[in-house]
Amino acid sequence: MQVVTKNPLASPSLMGVNAGASFMVVTYTFFVGTSSLGNYVWLALVGAAGSGALVYLLGSLGRQGMTPLKLVVAGSTVLALFSSLTQGFLVIRESTLDEVRFWLAGSLAGRNPALLVQVLPYLLVGIGIALVFSRQLTILNLGDDVARGLGQRVGLVKAVASLAVVLLAGASVAIAGPIGFVGLVVPHLVRALVGNNYRWVLPYCIVFGAILLLGSDIIARVVIRPGEVPVGAITALVGAPILIWLVRKKVRRA
């Protein structure tokens, strides 16, 4: 996502993709009632796709077309919109809050292995697309003009990469809730270790992302035993300082 948007701060949580997925799940629960986690898969995928398309549409308005700055503004707008609507539904009907509260905070607890089997095809397709297009993403990271000069179909690469983002983000949100900052922090850590070759960056992101999430989940389970802190709170504590550091670094370069 950071390659496609040309923005080091881009991630599904900050660009509104996770918020769109959460909004669809909460909206369905609000109007229809309690739903199993298995039904969250389609809802999250539709919400992630819709919010991603809306961000792309808003970021492409104007004479200059899509720019990193406009995408950030569009992502922040969509994030604020869907987050506000989600909170509105939760305030209006407390029963909805009770049904999705722990899921919204992000958690790996109590997940049925059958749910993983249900989302596995989407995860495998998303990962497969990302790995197959890893070489094109490496070239795209050099800039759109350079990529076109090297014979890359920039629009196609961005569209396919965006599809992978929607599949991975939607499936992940469906099974674990909108856990933030993992998609922001891990790519920067991996690039610091292996460079900008995405044939290495993407596989390492899978490994390091799993390590960060599982480590955060372990901390969440033991920090206030016998209770449990939502894992999303732990990843936020880890990711927020890194986000601040990235913003300061970007401002200094500007």
Automatic annotation (TrEMBL):
Task: Provide the transmembrane region boundaries.
Answer: 12-33, 40-59, 71-92, 113-133, 159-189, 201-223, 229-247
* Record's keyword terms, sorted: Cell membrane, Membrane, Transmembrane, Transmembrane helix, Transport
**Entry membrane topology:** Multi-pass membrane protein
- Name its cellular compartments: Cell membrane
Q: Does the keyword Membrane apply?
A: yes
The answer to whether keyword Membrane applies is: yes
From what superkingdom does this record's organism come? Bacteria
Q: Which GO terms describe its molecular function?
A: transmembrane transporter activity
Q: Which InterPro entries match?
A: ABC_BtuC-like, ABC_transptr_permease_BtuC
Q: Which GO terms describe its biological process?
A: siderophore-iron import into cell
Q: What's an example GO cellular component term for this entry?
A: plasma membrane
Family listed: Belongs to the binding-protein-dependent transport system permease family. FecCD subfamily.
Q: Which protein, by its recorded name, is this? A: Iron ABC transporter permease
